Amino acid sequence: MLGRNLIRLFAEVVKSEGLVVRMHSPTWTIFHNSTEVETIIFESLDGGRGIVNSQFMVFQTTLNPGVIEIHLKGGAIKKIIHIGGVLQKNTDNSVDCALFEAFTKEDIDWESLKKSDCFSQEPVGDSSTEGDYLRKLGHSLRDDIVNSSASLS
């Protein structure tokens, strides 16, 4: 994974050269002043599920790692896994959303993922297997980044 290799490279530079390096995850702007969003379901900071829809006038939150589900006008649904992000509902009913280290279903090699050690245990609960894999992938990715970035100090 490119992100992991970059973090390791920066960690080596910091150790050998004594440089102070501040790392930021790549950000994907999902929406900027978009009026196409009907509802957004996300992992809230208290561990539950949060919902933003037309009933919220103004809203801003920092997202927990996990899956964000975006329902667009016309019925299309996007599911994106991320390790964090920012979500904002504006006064004009538009939505801004930026995610860190974000992936869609198409970005993931599901066959390799299912064979990896990270998912050797069966998913727990009554939720879909795909959703559990996405959540585990998000937490695993976040842990990799946290562990790698610890080398920077």
From TrEMBL:
Domain of life (superkingdom): Eukaryota
Name of protein: Uncharacterized protein
